[in-house]
Amino acid sequence: MRIEEYKLEELTQPLLHWFAGHKRALPWRELATPYRVWVSEIMLQQTRVEAVKPYFERFVKALPDVSALAECEEERLLKLWEGLGYYNRARNLKAAAKQVMEEYGGVIPSDYEELLKLKGIGHYTAGAISSIAYGKTHPAVDGNVLRVISRAAGDDRDIRKASVRANMELELSKQIPEGAAGEFNQALMELGATVCLPNGAPKCDGCPWQDLCIARRDGLTGAIPVKSKPAKRRIEKRTVLLIMDGEKVVLRRRMEKGLLEGMYEFPNEMGHMDRKEALSYVEGLRLRPLKVGRLKDAKHIFSHVEWRMKGYLIEVDALKEGESGLLFAEAADFKENYPMPSAFAAYMGYLNISLGKGRFIQKEAALKEFEPL
User: Fold this and answer.
1) pTM, whole model, 2 decimals?
2) Which long-range contacts (CB under 8 A, 24 or more apart) does 103-106 make?
């Protein structure tokens, strides 16, 4: 069945009644200003709600409005975003904030089409801002909404197709109740996030549509929604080097465009080096290795690429500022001054620094494994 053949209007009242009693208390819902809705929606892209909460509160405390965001230096912005990943989201936020200041007098537009002109804002985010913050009757169709509507209507089309998404946006736009657009859109998202879960595991007994859902009726919750497989991730082997002198560690900044642009990182190279190659690399930086130790292997998954990392901790003779164009940073300064991608989280632990989740062995424990040269 296609969505047009299903009586969508029957879903609205049960959904809103359910949402009134089940919506979660979320910091961006407490004060749903256009700015707070916008920031939260960008953060929530490809990131779980529980993970976003502390980042959101820290971000809006440091940058409470569009003006502050537009004026924020990139390094500070990336530090505030550190751990959330997908750093172009943060850069696009700032670029769009500058657009708002320059083209809209500092006021985030309420018009859906105007919102689409802002950097990094697509149909879903424009719909969320216009409906939640301004009460405009536009749908906000994300993965959660595609799933719940596909299951309710028994629609077995591929939800990765832009034509299917556009069709669902059109049909849902006809059902948005006047004066309750924000509630309607948030209720759909909430249902998908807390009840109509992915991977064939919905909690149907707690669903307000349990007697209206075709997928439940026909035993198709494991088959719907239909999603074509994404492109396979590219595997990259990398060697990561923690080069240290006492409490100082060597860093470099990624200046090239693309993945992790503008972030700080430990020196790393494509391929897996053996011990001899790692030492030779350090000597090529005009540094003199004193001790070397193997660190645990690590893996980090980006959206389209997976890093499989081999690590070394190499203690060197005294570091001198300016040599080889490297930056020598005090480990104690990392938390405040150097935005580091979570891809290096496993190796940050050797500096007694916590970045994101995970348990790390301490630097002192790692040093016991060192071999003097």
Assistant:
1) 0.77
2) 106/66, 106/67
Q: Assess contact for 292 and 274: CB atoms under 8 A.
A: no
CB atoms within 10 A of CB 222: 10
Res 317: pLDDT:
84
Say if residue 40's pLDDT is above 50.
Answer: yes
Biggest CA pair distance of the chain? 75
Q: Which of 41, 169, 190, 265 is catalytic?
A: 41
Helices (H), the chain: 12-22, 27-30, 34-44, 49-62, 66-71, 74-81, 88-103, 112-115, 123-128, 143-153, 162-173, 181-194, 214-217, 275-284, 334-337, 345-348, 363-367
Helix (H, G, I), strand (E, B) or coil at 11: helix
Give the residue among 323, 68, 52, 155 at the shortest CA–CA distance from 141: 155
Taking alpha carbons only, the member of 334, 333, 357, 361 closest to residue 347 is 361
Nearest alpha carbon to residue 271 among 216, 226, 310, 321: 310
pLDDT at res. 345: 84
Considering only CA atoms, which of 26, 15, 7, 43 is closest in space to residue 183?
A: 15
Token pair listed for 159:
């939800």
Which segments of 34-161 does DSSP mark as H helices, in order? 34-44, 49-62, 66-71, 74-81, 88-103, 112-115, 123-128, 143-153
**CB-based contact 166:75 (threshold 8 Å):** no
Q: Tell me, yes or no, if 41 is annotated catalytic.
A: yes
> Does pLDDT of 363 surpass 50?
no
User: Which candidate, 238, 239, 250, places its Cα nearest to that of 334?
Assistant: 250
- Could you give the dihedral angle defined by the CA atoms of residues 1, 166, 178 and 115, in that order, rounded to the nearest 10 degrees? 160
In three-state secondary structure terms, 49 is: helix
Geometric angle at alpha carbon 166, from 160 and 171, rounded to 5°: 120
> Which tokens go with 326?
């490297």
